[in-house]
Amino acid sequence: MDKGEDGRAWSTRDRYEANLNSWIEPRWGKEELTAIKAPLVEEWLRKLHQKPRKGKGPQSLAVERELKPLAPASKAKIRNLMSVLFNHAIRWDFTDRNPISGPNKGAGVRQSSKRVSIPDILEVSEMRAIVAKLQLRERVLLFLAMVTGLRRGELTGIQWGDIDFANLLIDVRRSVVDQVVGRCKTEASQKPVPIDEFTAQDLLAWYRVTPYREPGDWVFASNSHRAGKKRGKQPLWLQSIMRYHIEPVIRELGINKRVSWHTFRRTYTTLLQANREDVKVVQELLRHGSVKVTMDVYAQAQMPAKRKAQQKVVEMVRLEARERTLSVGT
Question: What is the pTM of this model?
Answer without folding.
Answer: 0.74
